[in-house]
Amino acid sequence: MLEIAKHSDLKLTRYPIYPNDKFLAWNAADEYLVNYLNQEYHDLKNILIIEDEFGAIGIHLKADNIYFVNDSILSQKGIISNFNQNKINTSNLSFLSPYDPFPKDIDLIIIKIPKSNSYFEFLISKLNSHYPPDLPLLAATMVKYLNSTLYETCHSLLNNMQYSLTWKKAKIITGKLKGQKNNQDFITKVKHANLTLINYINLFSSSKIDIGTRFLLDNLSLINFPPNLDNIIDLGSGNGIIAFSLLTLLPQAKFWLTDITSSAYHSAKATISYNQLDSNNITLSKDHALDSFPADFADLIITNPPFHENHKVSIAPTLSIFADCFKVLKKNKMLVVIANRHLGYHQHLKKLFSEVNIITQNDKFIILSAIKSI
After folding, report:
1. What pTM was estimated for this model as a whole?
2. 103, pLDDT greater than 50
3. CB 3.0–4.6 Å: which of 79, 113, 116, 201 could bond 186 by disulfide?
4. 197, 241 contact by CB (below 8 A)
């Protein structure tokens, strides 16, 4: 049996690597799946693996073709990095977003159950629509993340459901596809001012505008923007609501929207099309933070940075983002941050920026500005 944590010679790391990051690139659910697969499945030709965050499952499998489906670009980069650092051939790997067409001939589907129940339902529904009945499926997660909604989804959309014994507080769900078509599009429309936002299923706060972003939107008039704004980056842009709200205030600027997920990219693209926004000055990208931008490029960066990554909570990614913002901003230009007050970003920004100001705040949120003066 293979156990990732103890008996494997493979080196697995998260992506990107942050200083003092104590989180592992796998958990017991990954180990349980790998052990189960080595006992029960052999000589599979084509495997579809969904939300294997950093390749901890797929890296142990041998198959003619392994198709990884991940919403986050970080997962794709992390999987490639882990295969490369272990000198494992990647020529049989393919990478898809959850909104791409799935491959036709699959022998087995493996899912690392995602945090969002609605996203999980979307995935199972899409699998049922694309594949014939009785295709085997394995899904795994930690027991503490299981809930009644997820159980109900499995029972309604899968046949021959079985639940494994709990091992290291992890559980495997096995079943077979029903092969039934589902006409639900899993897209939500949300109204804001004169915009209709088109939200894809795994977008953060897909059913409404999250309260932090709403607090920022309600207070845009309080921000004393620098003059001559040519390039504005909406970092972690989601459906683009922040950038699209600035279009009328700053019509001369070019807007660059970047996010790590396909859900955000497709949401923003669909929102532009639905509202017939002028896309000539809007560029969308799916990438990690500001990796695609050169130094001294931006006149304004505005962000609502996340501190949750799936089930993990950490401000390390945001602190790395702040350092990137400092590099990408031009001299005397501005970073605007909306965040939960308890995170204490004000003090972290002061370590990089000589001028940090509180624009406004309430009991829960704070809007900060930081000027790069050197």
Report:
1. 0.93
2. yes
3. 201
4. yes
